[in-house]
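User: We ran a pulldown and think these components assemble together. Before we commit to crystallization trials, I'd like a predicted model of the whole complex to look at. Sequences follow.
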Amino acid sequence: MSSPSTAGVVVVGGGQAGFSVVSTLRASGYDGPVTVFAAEPHLPYQRPPLSKKAHTDPVRVELVPESFYRERNIDVRLGDDVIAVDTAARTVTTASGARVPYEHLVLATGAHNRPLPVPGAELDGVHALRSLDDALAIGGALATAREVVVIGGGFIGLELAQVARARGGRVTVVELAGRLLSRAVSSQVEEHLRERHERVGVRILTGTAVRAIEGTERVRRVVTDRGVLPADLVVYGIGAAPRDELARDAGLAVDDGVIVDEQLRSITDPRVFAVGDCARHPNPYADGLVRLESVPNATDQGTLVGRRIAGSPGVPYASLPWFWSDQGDIKLQIAGLRVSSDDVYLATGGSPERLAAYAFRDDRLVAVETLNWPAEHLAARRLLEQDAPVCAADLTGSTLGALTRARRAAGVRG
Ligand SMILES: Cc1cc2nc3c(=O)[nH]c(=O)nc-3n(C[C@H](O)[C@H](O)[C@H](O)COP(=O)(O)OP(=O)(O)OC[C@H]3O[C@@H](n4cnc5c(N)ncnc54)[C@H](O)[C@@H]3O)c2cc1C
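Assistant: Here's a predicted model for the assembly, 414 residues in total across the polymer chains.
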């Protein structure tokens, strides 16, 4: 355990990664001052349920109750943004005027939604979805919305499309790219996903540009380059950008995220760490630096930094990237990182309701996407984490689950 000075640890951002840092600090025996500045008025909460269930009860998404922080002497300052960092004086300044010293600073500021650059985006009834307050507003609007237009066929848009459909709305997803989830999943998995969305009545328009949103007091229609869609609720999710302005203004190296080393320290100032959506980090599963937007990444990075500050020896961040998305009754899970040039092979394990897409680079398994097949996803994570090589021939007529069992029976690692 380290012997902290009174300056202690300041965490900027009370989200998934910030929570992981402070809970790990205390679990690892750190007993110095710990302060979290959280711009939002809510205790740290989970974002995934916001688009999967459109929750209207804040308490149900809180990561832990308020007593957790009180019992561990973690000072959570809600609704107080950090507006400046002085790395020379080692202080942060907040919107309320507080100036707080730090021994270690952790930036966990997350990402923000890219704004929708079309006329009418400011009309009533047009929503982005990132925060609990956004979800509360959308949840209320869904109760009466009949014509829902989702702009952006990414994870959040597709999840929300299913929620809106389940509540009886007519739902159209408008996507500018030629296909859904174009950066995130292989074209093979996209085809299956699209078919399943359409099967439950979600209309999908790919290769379609939104030109304007129209209405007088509130939204009435969405004008696209392929026609006009009636709308009484519009939700858009057209990508996110890291919240790295604070770091940039403080003179820290930033390039689409705060640039950190393998121990997640700023490459400019080793007393400053960055974790979660805002951090661009070296990852052994990526080619160079990468910025990931996922709960496992935020949690694992927060854990690593919390342990490090509490006195554990520095170890490189090496967690396997993985992700999930629940779209109605479809569970998509991704292990590893794929690039578009990888070779992709499919398996269904004999069931039409499930699918696995195995991505190979130089005949080595690098990523696996599964639909409604959690066991295969887990097998993929185990094999990729163990760096147990799998080539395409290993999977001919087989699955990772079967391969793992066969290797175990033969006493082979993996
Ligand atoms: C609707 C939705 C659904 C998602 N679903 C999934 C999913 O199914 N699976 C998955 O793996 N991931 C999912 N994600 C992504 C996942 O939630 C994020 O990757 C994760 O929350 C990142 O954690 P973070 O702490 O880096 O950022 P966040 O959780 O976004 O927290 C950052 C916090 O910092 C605050 N902040 C920013 N600047 C300041 C400042 N200057 N001062 C004080 N506070 C500041 C922000 O207000 C925010 O509350 C989803 C995200 C969204 C929005």
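Residues 147 and 232 are 5 Å apart (CA to CA). That may be worth checking against your pulldown data before setting up trials.

User: Thanks, that helps.
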